[in-house]
Amino acid sequence: MNLSSFARPLFAAGFFCVTLTVFSANQPAKPNAMLACQLLAPPPLPSGHAVMLGFRLRNTGKDTVWVLDWNTPLEGLRNRFLRIRGPAGELDYEGPMFKRGQPQLQQYRRIDAGQAIEAEIELTLAYDFSRPGKYRVEFTGHLHDMLKAPAQPPRGQAALVPQGLSCPAVEITVLPAVTG
């Protein structure tokens, strides 16, 4: 047995471990217990109308937190972070896709203990709701970073700590268009 045939499996195993470590380090943990997430569906509306989705993030903890708004409704529709299933199956996301540099202070949102922040996005800017029926909307994103006070944002991408975020799905009903 020569050295190269012995070293090759060790190199492959080491590469796998390093890759697995890097991959898992950037993945969010289970949902953060101090944040309560809620999607807010509009009442039934006729086809052709703007479909607005509300988003509320409540800090149920005892400390002020800062959350990075990337890929959440807090920054608007700038990436895909929702899964929407309608009468004809899953809807394609047709909105913008942003690349990221270093986080900036204005991209962090402060949530004091016991308080909530809210946002509203117009889903029809990125999804086709023209077919009447029921649509199931799920948040599939996560928080790219969260800091507890007294820590202050921003911090560089290498220091970001992703957080899982669990938001119960909602149903939106689109009615046939009103004519006449």
UniProtKB/TrEMBL annotation:
Gene Ontology terms describing biological process: proteolysis
Signal peptide: 1-24
GO MF annotation: an example: peptidase activity
Keyword Protease carried by entry: yes
Keyword annotations of the record: Hydrolase, Protease, Signal
Protein name: Protease
Organism: Chitinimonas arctica
